[in-house]
Amino acid sequence: MTSQTPPIMTAHVDTSLMVEQQKSEKEATRVRSALAVYKFRSSSTFARKEYKRSWLQDLAYLHKLSKDAADLGDLIRLVERKLGMPVQSRRRKRCQSAIAAYISKQPGELPVSALMTRFRAHVAEAVLGGYMSFNRSVHHVFDGTGCVRGNEEPTLAANDTLDTTVRTCKSNSIRCTVHSFFESNRKEFDKIDAAIIAAGDDVSG
């Protein structure tokens, strides 16, 4: 993306760009500036579900970890220890970005204890208002996929636990049009599958 006026004045904003807008101001500003040239920006409930599955679940995880952390430094160390496996690197980086984004927006004179208290409140508010911030960053949220999970908003339980669960749809009650598309074209996908198997070692990774 560039700052010049694009030939197409509409853009579909996917989950990754939504997440980038929540990080440090440097990262967020770069994305917002690139998207600002588009007169109409849309996303979808399916992308919103993935936003919940990644960013909002990460924030809820930080909220949970923060109960066992004395300060933000301790929280950072907890994240590095608990998400230290290579397979967890993307989640670790998102959690680190969330902490860095929070710190970058705080006045320098605040004591460490106040930072931690504010962080917990900030994260809870960000999770509960996550769908609102998602919707505000675009002009339209497309619901063509009929994604039920994309409309389930996070909640805060009485025990101060954030619920950001993305439930698995039961096979006999899926209403998503993505699922319907694959079901209605099952024969074609079976042909592709058979061709791949028949090609054997000639199929690339």
Structure characteristics:
about 200 residues, three-stranded parallel sheet, two-stranded antiparallel ribbon, 5 strands, about 55% helix
Can you give a write-up of this model?
- The protein has 205 residues and is mainly alpha-helical.
- It has two domains: 10-166, no CATH class; 168-205, no CATH class.
- It has helices at residues 15-20, 25-36, 45-65, 72-82, 89-104, 112-128, 130-136, 177-184, 186-199; strands at 10-12, 40-44, 140-142, 155-156, 162-163.
- The protein has a three-stranded parallel sheet. A two-stranded antiparallel ribbon has the order 4-5.
- A hairpin with a 5-residue loop joins strand 4 (155-156) and strand 5.
- Helix 6 (112-128) crosses helix 7 (130-136).
- The chain starts with 9 loop residues before the first strand and ends in a 6-residue tail after the last helix.
